[in-house]
Amino acid sequence: MRALQGKLVYANQGTVEDFRQLAEVYGLDLNGTVVIVKYGGTGRADKGINAARYGAVGLVVYTDPGDMNDGKVSDKNETYPHSWYLPPSGVERGSYKQNFGDQLTPYYPAKDYAFRQNESDITGLSPIPAQPIGFEDARQLICSLGGPEAPNTWQGGLGCTYRLGPGFDSLTSFTNSSEVRVSVFNERVVRPSDNVIGIIRGSLEPDRYVIYGNHRDSWVHGAIDPSSGTAVMLEITRVLGKMVKEGKWRPRRSIVFGSWGAEEFGLIGSTEWTEEFYKTLSERAVAYVNVDIAVFANATFRASGSPAVQDVVFSAAKQVPAPGHQDRTVYSNWLKHSSRESPLHGTIPFMGALGSGSDYASFFHYLGISAMDIAYTYNKSKTSARIYPAYHTAYDTFDYASRFIDPGFTSHQAVARTAGNVVIRLADASLLPFKARDYSEALVELYQQAQQHLEPTLAQQGIYLEHLQRAVNRFSGAAERFDLRMSENRELLKCPLQQRMMNDQLMSLERSFLDPLAFPSKLYYRHVVYASRSSPVRTFPGLADAVEEAVVGSGDPSLWGSVRRQLALLTYALESAASVLEPPLDGGL
Fold it and tell me: Considering the domain 436-581 in this protein, what is its CATH number?
């Protein structure tokens, strides 16, 4: 057990900017304080790391009803079991570390023979104790704070005016003390965890793997996270396994199903598996399909993924009926709820980028395997919920799922049919259903963001983007020519060696964006296009973060050297990716 005490300070979401405002705008001394923050805005571990940087000795985290419950907290009949909203006693748990995998054996599987580093060498953990609480307890704390009134954007749904502290208002305090005491009873232990792997061997290309994954551990009951995804995976394996056993079908490529353990403790099972089979997967894996929470709600489909997989997701979604809509497919319903304008395709559904919140992380960011994460979700125009309200709480039960998330489980069926369709397409197509031009469109957009938001600042330092622009243009030309060869050269369908060659180019495309030297302080992040990013500028992460750090620390000229380095690494990666798509012996080799 760890116990501590100090005066309480409210710090909004615990972001770096939030703490900067407390210190610089409000002049608060946070040394020795306990900080209370809302979920959202930044990762759980980041909240503790940021608080410790400003001198706080403890962290309390709660789910604000304004972010999760649309403000419905005044009447007990407005929350579960009467609706899907989180009851006041609900506590959202979670892992408070930045990195994934076993922290004692980074980059290597945690086998018996593995070298384990000292605990003192582990990075990315909150250096101060952190404790989540429900909002009924948070209300007592925050609504009793004294000090200046918090900014309007920091106010929430607890039904009182949020103040910053430190300490309590003696006129309204529920306690005789000016301090709070935090006791954390977590244990630091090493426990075994298992992955369960199922395989359908491919008929023609058994050495090419389409991987489908879901984790099976949960916080408390876990009916939705992860059991909704587990149910979908079990149904897909049942259907495909039955077809194989009856001799009706066998995929061209091998399909590997992974039921990952210890995901909730930081993606441990999947990360350890990718470390153990790093060499094999780097050479043989075609794609990774992730279904963690299959159904957040029953309004519309949702997907995130590499730009390369956009087309196969769209194609699969067009073949599945949308539940509750006789005249719509999953695709058309998705388009109705969330769309964007594409220079290549016109109006299409919006597909997000992959972060690091589920088991796709090590496959995508570490191994460079084209990946996706798919689910059904809620109508964001009708609720402001950050995620489904019972997320990671004791109220994530079968009753909650069947009554409020997906009555009749029709959205579960839609996800299973769409995900199964994607897997079959990836496993059976003679030519992999990836589109290089979709990647070029994404790169152009990221470059335009850099040009708009970073170029003026860079120019003041004599740093220019012309080499990066040429690399983007070269990649776009190579992608267009590659897709043209894929669509027009019908001889490919008659030549297995030609098919294999072009498929290998498509497999290598995602890997070509990896650079193990790009982010030395970020374990497992090697993807220069989609690594984690702290900068608000939605562009290439290494470049954006380096510019932000250089601007903040303007007195240190070496920081602009880091900007130049990131720009060079990025340009090199894009040039390399272009050469991967060019015909053999073209483009210099």
Answer: 1.20.930.40
